[in-house]
Each structure stands twice: as C-alpha cells, then as structure tokens.
Design brief:
Helices cover 28% and strands 29% of the residues. By secondary structure, it is of the alpha+beta class. It has one domain (9-170): Nuclear Transport Factor 2, Chain: A, CATH 3.10.450.50.
Length: 187
C-alpha cells in the first residue's frame, strides 16, 4: 500500500516498515529481512494455534523453517481495512490459499488436503523505537477446519468460506447459522 497523505509522517513510517516486513515474508521470502524490521526482543503470536516466537533467534527460526517455506504458492492477501495509530497498526484482510503444503504454523500436524481456504485475519502490530515489537494474529480456526473438511459444520455453530465472503461483502445474508435452529421470520 502507498502511504496516504492524511497520515502523519510518523504514521507513514510505521506503515512503510510494516509493508517492508510483509514484503520480506511474502515477496522476498527472507526470514533475515523480516526479523531485521523488528526490535531486539520481539514477539509474534498466532493466537488460535499459539505459533510464532518470543525473540529474534526464535523468530528467525520460525520464519525461516516454518512460516516462509510452508506458505502455499497461491497465497493472496486481500485487504479489508487498515487502522494506523501512534504506535500500532491493525490490519484486517482475507488470507486465501490452497492447502497444498504442510503448514505447521497454521495447521500443526495436518497434512495437505489440497482444498482452497479463505479466512479473515486480523493482525495487531505494535511498534517501539521505529521497529516492530510484536504481532498478534487472530483468525477463526473453525472456519479453516470446516473448509478443509476436518470438522462437520452441520451441527455446530460454525461456518466456512462464508465468513470471509461476508467480510468482503457485508451485503451478504446475516443470521444464517441462527436460521438453522430459530424460527423467526425477521431474521
């Protein structure tokens, strides 16, 4: 993304560093470059599966051994929103991929299913002294598991790809899970 003029110069610098970090991971595929955008003692936590690391050495290993090499070739990030504050960025996007490779950072121990997945992710990036201090990444793991055929949504209050589609298009129907069990003609 290009820096927007309504951002302060300090916010533009945060966004520039975050974009550099993302390019290191997804374009350049360099764990070293990704970690170099971070403070001396950073932390990354993929909340649903608790993967990541708590210092540069762990993150260099995590990015270089798991995250970058286990990223499917067809991975696409579709931006939904970005909020930039004084010391943090919150990114919301749809993460699209085909589960064509082992992805222990996202699906520990699950062999490739070769099924497509679209999941909404939210990343909270905290900065300190001009570097990335932490990343907390949230997503609906049940939505991922439904799309891979690993859980049956028919009797559970979970959805699959519809959650990502609804995030991209808020005009899609709401309350579909409720309609399975509630007879309310206004839903």
């Amino acid at each position: 993304m290009r820096p927007r003029t309504e951002l302060s110069p300090a916010q533009q610098e945060l966004e520039k560093l975050w974009e550099e970090h993302l390019a290191s991971e997804f374009k350049d595929k360099s764990a070293f470059a990704a970690v170099n955008t971070m403070v001396d003692h950073p932390n990354v936590n993929h909340i649903p599966v608790m993967t990541g690391g708590v210092n540069r050495k762990q993150l260099q290993h995590f990015y270089g051994t798991y995250f970058i090499p286990q990223m499917p070739k067809d991975t696409v990030l579709v931006p939904i929103s970005r909020t930039i504050g004084n010391d943090r960025i919150v990114d919301e996007f749809v993460f699209k991929f085909t589960h064509s490779v082992q992805m222990d950072w996202l699906l520990p121990g699950v062999p490739p299913t070769h099924k497509p997945v679209e999941v909404v992710k939210v990343v909270i990036v905290q900065f300190e002294d001009g570097k990335i201090k932490s990343e907390r990444i949230h997503w609906d793991q049940a939505s991922v598991l439904v799309q891979l055929g690993l859980i049956d949504p028919s009797k559970l209050p979970v959805a699959g790809v519809a959650t990502a589609q609804k995030a991209l298009n808020p005009e899609l129907p709401s309350n579909e899970l409720m309609k399975r069990t509630i007879n309310d003609e206004q839903l």
